[in-house]
Design a protein that fits this description.
binds flavin-adenine dinucleotide; alpha/beta; four-stranded mixed β-sheet; 9 helices; globular
């Protein structure tokens, strides 16, 4: 039975993929949880992303990130099944593997050197990949253009419908007794005697713990518990084509075929501040590379183009932090909220329920950005 009390065990500020995954994981463990989410005018990468669950290439210089990503990807199928049982929504997760495509031998060598460095740092992880020449890659990706030099295939990579994922998390939360409140933007957080008092919309809430997972709104909320959290916008643009018969057997970092048959083409990375408009020159750039790799794309009609803003930290890694000055307040942000959704729901939610983040997540604390502490 869902309570309508404003007092709960955990409040989650932000109901995007990150906050909703944590809230779902908490509710599934029997923890009373309320999500306070913003309105429809918020900047929300959870509603505009590419939908990849991607392992390869993750964790360069940070083996803990390789491990987290790997663990999440391995847990993804069970997580998707669990979500379907709770919410009735099939999030269309599949793991056909993913390829990185190189347009020159140098590009391939540079990427392989990066993969080798990642593998050396996290040598206990069974992340297999195959380095392929053009004919080898064409077995996974028929229709390659003549300028493709080769690529790397990783069987762990997959994809999902990210909009179904968000809906399933929000619904699954409620099925497990949690509450999701839209249009409840958090404007004030106070902590007194081990309790958090939170103002959202015109209402007040109290809880023993709070999770700040508000995407681009995170720095403002984190400042209310004396934490400095750098989250910067990075403009990403996606082109969607008409639906066609299945042609792309595996995912790539810049093109994937959805379950319905559309080809999603992306994904740009440009610094443009908080500008969310789709730019013609960006569409031209991403279409140029995609059609060089897959010339058949030139004959397809474009049905939609959008731009959205990634939530990027300065080093590109997630932030997982429990406040030292306000114990019970957790800050979470990352730029791979689809890939990490399983880890957030299954592992991170458990740590938050237990009240402490494990040592292996220490490297994701916000202190790493503190210039004074580093000096
Ligand atoms: C173009 C693009 C492609 C991407 N592709 C992938 C991919 O293939 N795979 C992958 O893993 N990731 C991908 N990502 C990243 C992924 O989308 C993000 O990591 C994820 O959506 C971040 O989710 P979030 O919940 O942190 O943020 P958001 O989606 O921004 O959600 C935050 C929520 O917090 C709410 N909020 C803000 N302020 C407040 C407040 N004061 N009070 C209450 N609520 C508040 C907002 O209303 C919003 O609903 C991509 C992103 C982009 C932009």
């Amino acid at each position: 039975m869902v309570s309508d009390s404003n007092s709960t065990e955990v409040l989650v500020a932000g109901g995007g993929l990150v906050g909703a995954a944590i809230a779902y994981g908490l509710a599934r463990r029997g923890v009373a949880t309320i999500v306070l989410d913003g309105g429809d005018d918020a900047l929300r990468p959870s509603r505009g992303n590419f939908g990849l669950v991607r392992v390869q290439g993750k964790g360069f210089g940070c083996p803990a990130y390789s491990r987290l990503t790997y663990d999440s990807a391995v847990a993804w199928q069970g997580f998707a099944d669990d979500l379907k049982a709770a919410s009735g929504i099939d999030v269309a997760y599949s793991k056909p593997g993913g390829a990185i495509v190189a347009l020159s031998d140098e590009e391939l060598e540079t990427y392989c050197a990066k993969l080798e460095a990642i593998g050396r740092d996290a040598d206990d992880l069974p992340v297999d990949y195959e380095v392929l020449d053009r004919p080898g890659l064409a077995k996974h990706l028929p229709g390659l253009g003549p300028d493709v030099a080769g690529g790397v295939y990783c069987p762990l990579d997959g994809h999902v419908n990210p909009l179904y994922l968000l809906r399933a998390l929000q619904l699954g939360l409620q099925v497990h007794g949690g509450r999701y409140l839209a249009n409840h933007e958090v404007t004030q957080i106070d902590s007194r005697s081990g309790e958090f008092r939170v103002r959202a919309g015109s209402r007040d809430f109290t809880a023993g713990k709070i999770v700040i997972a508000a995407g681009h709104g995170t720095p403002r909320l984190a400042a209310m518990i004396d934490a400095q959290v750098p989250v910067n916008p990075e403009h990403g643009q996606i082109i969607v084509t008409e639906r066609i018969r299945p042609v792309l057997k595996v995912t790539t970092s810049f093109a994937r075929q959805t379950e319905e048959g559309s080809i999603m083409i992306g994904v740009s990375r440009v610094g443009r501040g908080y500008d969310t408009t789709a730019h013609l020159e960006t569409s031209r750039d991403i279409a140029k590379r995609a059609t060089t790799v897959f010339p058949f794309l030139r004959s397809l009609r474009v049905v939609r183009i959008w731009a959205c803003l990634r939530t990027m930290t300065p080093d590109g890694l997630p932030i997982y932090q429990q406040s030292k000055s306000h114990p019970g307040a957790f800050i979470v942000t990352c730029h791979s909220g689809v890939t990490l959704a399983a880890a957030h729901a299954l592992q991170l939610a458990r740590y938050i329920a237990e009240g402490a983040l494990p040592e292996e997540l220490d490297c994701f604390g916000c202190e790493r950005f503190d210039v004074q502490a580093a000096a």
